[in-house]
Amino acid sequence: MTTTDTHAAGADDVDRAVLRALAHDGRASWATIGELAGCSTSTAQRRVTRLVEDGAVRIIAASDVLASGFGVSTKVRVRSGAARADALADALARRPEVRFVSTLTGSADCTAEVVLPRVGDLTAFLSTIEVDGRPVETEALPIVRTFTAPFTVFPGDALAPTAERSTTANAPAPDPSTGQGVTPVHADATPEERAVFAALVRDGRKPLTDLAREVGRSEAATRRTLEDLVQSGRLRIGPLVAPSLLGRATELEVWISVAPDRLSAAAAQLAGHPSVHYAAASLGRFNLIGQAFLPDFASVYTFSTDVLGALPGVREVDVTVQLRTVKRMWSRIEDGRFVPTSATSVPAIP
Questions:
Q1: Integer distance in angstroms from the first to the last C-alpha of the chain?
Q2: Per-residue pLDDT averaged across 18-45, rounded?
């Protein structure tokens, strides 16, 4: 089956079961993955290998960088003009501190998520955003609280099976109904933790021996660091899935202004919707940002009216469509498929 055929056909029941198992414990043995997915060890390994080689899935480490002490995340909206948006997105995607980039239709032409050591570093970063030597208009929205966790829900699919927890199983996700989101640890990550995170962003299943060699520590010390990060919930390891694989053809970025006294309730309600992949509170003109993956463009109207329109305290809603996403979770994307990350392509973990 070719890459194009795989995306056209989508994931079957076995693929979905294996993805759910990986979302529970991205570093589990193939035997454990097969047991959780209800298939043989060889089938589990073969299915994942095919999905990864086809560019439909990558197994990576992800983190709420603010809550885990790795840095500050900021969503940046850019007005560059449609003719310059693709060039700008490609230039931003090459920057190691940029975690996500997509061109948009609507009130902004491009959006990026940048991870920096401090919010004060934004001025220097924003001053460097230009196309053909010309500056562009930017709007920065620093993230102050996240209400979703990676690999816990992919639209239309629950990716968290009930199973015995291991030392590398992902921690339970925050309960969105509480409206509290992911509480920051109020501490900086150690150099060792940053090194482990950076290595596993490229390959979440990197063998412990190779991981220890890369971070320059013993296997025992590296194992302790990894287990502490995962068990505490500061690091999650699982499958980054191309939306098209699970029948999600339309990707939205939604920008919402909510009355401050209703923000927690609105964020919890947005995060709890099965089509919402990401929800976070931010500073600036829009204080609630979401990302939603829908089956088709015709679903945008119902999502806008029935979901966004029902949020409490809403003052303004701006719905933008992701036209061409070129980077997600530090993973480059070409033609809707994840591009293998080379050893020299190191994400900038502050």
A1: 40
A2: 95
Residues 6+ positions from 39 with CB-CB distance below 8 Å: 14, 17, 18, 47
pLDDT value, residue 164: 59
pLDDT at 286: 98
Q: Are 21 and 161 in contact (CB under 8 A)?
A: yes
Q: What residue type is 99 in one-letter code? A: R
- Which backbone phi and psi does 283 adopt, to 5 degrees? -100, 145
CA distance 156 to 295: 9
Q: What is the pLDDT of residue 275?
A: 92
Rounded CA gap, 152 and 170, in Å?
9
Residue range 143-181, pLDDT digits in tens: 999 999 898 866 445 544 555 567 788 888 777 777 788
Can you point out the beta strands (E) in the chain? Answer: 57-62, 72-79, 98-105, 110-116, 130-131, 134-135, 137-146, 153-154, 157-158, 236-241, 250-258, 276-282, 288-294, 314-328, 331-334, 337-338
